[in-house]
Each structure stands twice: as structure tokens, then as C-alpha cells.
Amino acid sequence: MPTTIGILGAGGQASELAAYVGAESVSFYAVDAQHLSAAGRTIDVTAPSDEQRGCEVIAAVGAPAVRRELVSRWPGDRFGAYVSPAAYVGPTVGIGDGSIVSPGAVLTASVLVGHHVIVNVGASISHDVVVGDFATIGPGARIGGHCRLGAGVVIGIGAVVKNDVAIADGVIVGAGAVVVADVEEPNAVVIGNPARTLRIAEGWAREL
């Protein structure tokens, strides 16, 4: 864990990350908080200061589309990952740069987490799962073994994804949904038990 970390974000997800790292006596600061936008507004990230260039940065924004845009506009190239000491991460788990694994999360064995992924409080990811870049796994979500979650996927609070299910890029799984079959349509919004498609979104989720 670095001694100083930059938090690219100014909302709830950023405040949670600040609480986590602060409890571990890690210095942190918000990066360009005045430029962080709500959905649909232009994101403007200015050139990093010398201090910011010298430390790792994590984009702590829940919505994958906003997180991806912030990362793409950030002029620095040092993205760190945060893994809470209160999470269980197995020795064969890989975690990409910029990702967050929150307290109480469980990642068992042979899990591959992409870049800039958020695994929220109490979520569990079973063996041999691949999680695409910029995905968000909600609090208390359960991902069965051998699943494939595409880039920018959002798994809502308490949702369950059955073993061996593949979910396409940009799919939003609603809170409490139970996904028992592949979701093949990118950007689909699925809800219910068993999960069914409610609609097709225009792009990656900006709001959870």
C-alpha cells in the first residue's frame, strides 16, 4: 500500500475509499474535485501537480462510464489498486491497476479482476471468474464460479449471478436480481428473479 494516494472522485464512492485508506494511516487527497461532473456534463481534468505525478491515483466513481472518462482524461499514468486488509483475496487472484476491493469482499481462487474495477463491501466472487475493466460489483453481490463479466458491467446490490454465466459489456444487473442464463446483448438492463431484460441502454451506465 502506498503512503500517499490520490482519489479521483468527490462523491460517495470516493468518500468510502477515503475512509478505508485513512483508517490505515495512508495520506490521501481529492484530485480536481471541482471538475468532477454529474452524468451528462463535460469532465475536465487538468494537468497533475508535481505531488500528484509522484503518487498513485485511483478513480473512485461508481458509474463505469464516468470512471472510464475520468481515467481517459487523467494526464498521469500511475494508477494504484486498493485491497482492504478486511477483504479475503486468494493467492491466485489477479487485480488490475486502479481497482478497489472493499472490506468484507471475498475473491476466492483464480479470479481475474480487470483494471479500474470496484468490488464493493461484502461482495463475493467465486473461483475462475473474469471481471472486465471498469466493472462495478455492488455491495453483497454474489458471483458464481466460471462467470465472465464484460467491461463496464454493473452488478447491483445483493444480485446473484449463477455459475458459468457470461454477461456482455455494459450490462446493468438490477439490485436483487438473479441471473441464471447468459446476457448476450451489450448494455442490457436486467431485473428480477429469474432476471429478464427490461430495456437496452444507450451506453455504459452513468448512474447506479
Automatic annotation (TrEMBL):
<keyword id="KW-0808">Transferase</keyword>
<protein>
    <recommendedName>
        <fullName>Acetyltransferase</fullName>
    </recommendedName>
</protein>
<dbReference type="GO" id="GO:0016740">
    <property type="term" value="F:transferase activity"/>
</dbReference>
<keyword id="KW-0677">Repeat</keyword>
<dbReference type="InterPro" id="IPR011004">
    <property type="entry name" value="Trimer_LpxA-like_sf"/>
</dbReference>
<dbReference type="InterPro" id="IPR018357">
    <property type="entry name" value="Hexapep_transf_CS"/>
</dbReference>
<dbReference type="InterPro" id="IPR050179">
    <property type="entry name" value="Trans_hexapeptide_repeat"/>
</dbReference>
